Amino acid sequence: MLNFTISIIQSSVQNAIKEFRDVFKKVTGIPSIEYRNRYNKMAAG
Question: What pLDDT does 45 receive?
């Protein structure tokens, strides 16, 4: 039963991450990874 519960939680988290990335790209026009790479360089530089 515990493995089943963990599996459901992992699936929910993965779906939430995918949804976040999809919405983020629609709002910003770029993928979250590209945004992070671009603006981390600007903040560090």
Answer: 63
**Burial readout 6-44 (b: 16 or more C-beta within 10 A, e: otherwise):** eeeeeeeeeeeeeeeeeeeeeeeeeeeeeeeeeeeeeee
Q: 11 pLDDT exceeds 80?
A: yes
Distance CA(5)–CA(11), nearest Å, equals 10
Which tokens belong to 43?
A: 């903040």
Distance CA 24, CA 21 (A): 5
The reply to whether the predicted model has a pTM over 0.70 is no
